[in-house]
C-alpha cells in the first residue's frame, strides 16, 4: 500500500539543486538509505513530512537527483513494526537528580537502561542529587565571604567530595571531572573577587552539575563495555533566548540537534548521554538554563527533534499522583493523562514535570511515560493526546501555596473600555507574572502603579487549589468540593475556570490549604461515593479512568 507525504502547503526546496519538491510524494514500504549520511539537506520541512508517516523512526531526509551519488537505494522497511528497525534510536530516557545521586544509584540506572535491550535510547541526565542547590548556595556565600575563603565554602567541599567519591566507587579515573572541579573553584573565586553574581554567571555556574554527572555516567557505561558518548546540550544545537536562568528553546534547535545526534549515531552506535537543563544563548553564545526542572524540556525537545516513538521521564515517584504525597501519603498513581492535563498540573505546582515540557511532545504527538527509577516495575503514567474521559471525574489535586491575591476595585471599570488591558499592561511593564508575585519589593511597585487607576487591596498568605479533571462535569465536581468545604468549615474566597477544559482553581487561606487537599482527596479518590448527579451523567467512577 502506498503512502502519501503532504507538505502542508509549504514550499520545500532541495538543498542539492534548489528545485521545489513534489508536494505529494508517493512511495511504498521503502526508506531512503544514503551512501554518505553526513551530507544532509536542511530538513525542517522534510522532518514534518516524515512525521506524517511514522513518528517512531528517525527524521526523513531526501536529496534530489542532482545529488544522486548520495542515495544508495530504496530498501524495503516495515513502517508498522513495533520493533526497532536497523538499530535506529527509539526513545529518550530522562533521569532526575535523585535517580543519579550516588555511585550506587548510577549503577542501578545503568542496569535499568540495559534491561531494555529492544530500546536504543538517548539518555538525558540532571545534576547529581542536590548539586544544583549546593552550587547556588556556594555562589551566594562566595559573594560575601571574600576570595581567600572560597575553598572553605561547605557546599563546594560537598560537591567535590560527592563527585570524587562517585568516580572512585565506579572505578573511573578522576580526570573525567577534575578539570571541571578546578574550573568551578576558579569561577567561585571570580565571583568572590567581584562580589557579584549576575544571572549570566549563575547559569554558567549551575551548568557544572549536569556537565559532570553526564561525563561520569558515560565513562561508567564505557568502562563496563557499553559504548556511550557524552554531549553538552549547548554544543549540539540547543539554541535559546538570552533570558538567563529561564531561557526559551528556539525552533532552530530541532534540525540542529537531530542532525548532530542522528549522524553520530549512524557512524557509531554509542548511547548518547546528554546534559539536561542547558542551552546556548542565540545572541550571546553563553550557556543558558531552561528554568528549574528544565531537563524534562530537554528530553521532550530531543524526542520531537528526532521523531522518536516515546519519551520516558524517570522520577523518584510512581508516576503522576492524585496529590502531593508529602501532604497526603494516600496519593495514588494516575495511569493516564492528556497533554493538556499534564500541562495544567505542572503549571499549577505539581513537581513531577516542567510546565513547558509537554509542548514539544504535544506538537509531535509523541507519548510521554513518567516512571519511577526506584520502582521500575510500576506502570507509571502515560501522557498522550487523548484518553477515555467518559468515566473520569477528577484526575488530580494540585496545591500552590504562599500566593498573594490583589483585589482591584474601580468604579471607572464599569462601562470603561480597556480597563483590564491597563491592569495587565502594568504587570507586563514591571516584568511580573500575574499569578506569581515573588517579593515585597515587587508588590510595592505593583500597588503603586495600580493605585493610579484603582483601589488595591493586598490579600497575602493565600493558596490555590487546582482541581484537574473532566470539567465537562464541573457542576458535579463543585458539588462534591463544596460539600467538603462545608464540612471542614473552610471559606472559598475565589473560583476560577479559564479557557482550559481540564482545570478549576479555588483560593483559600494558606493555613487551611493542606487540610482541604486531604479532605478533597478522600472525597474524590477514597470514599467511593458517587452522587445522584454522577449517576444521571453516566459517571460511575470518581477515580482516574484506566
UniProtKB/TrEMBL annotation:
Q: Please list the GO terms describing molecular function.
A: aspartate kinase activity; ATP binding
GO CC annotations, alphabetized: chloroplast stroma; cytosol
Say if the entry is tagged with keyword DNA-binding.
no
- Biological process, per Gene Ontology: homoserine biosynthetic process; lysine biosynthetic process via diaminopimelate; threonine biosynthetic process
Keywords of the record, alphabetical order, are: Amino-acid biosynthesis, ATP-binding, Kinase, Nucleotide-binding, Threonine biosynthesis, Transferase
The protein's annotated pathway: Amino-acid biosynthesis; L-methionine biosynthesis via de novo pathway; L-homoserine from L-aspartate: step 1/3; Amino-acid biosynthesis; L-threonine biosynthesis; L-threonine from L-aspartate: step 1/5; Amino-acid biosynthesis; L-lysine biosynthesis via DAP pathway; (S)-tetrahydrodipicolinate from L-aspartate: step 1/4
Enzyme Commission designation: 2.7.2.4
| SUPFAM superfamilies listed in its UniProt record | ACT-like, Carbamate kinase-like
Give the ACT domain ranges. 466-542
Reactions catalysed: L-aspartate + ATP = 4-phospho-L-aspartate + ADP
Family label: Belongs to the aspartokinase family.
- This chain belongs to the protein called Aspartokinase
**Source organism of the structure:** Sesamum angolense
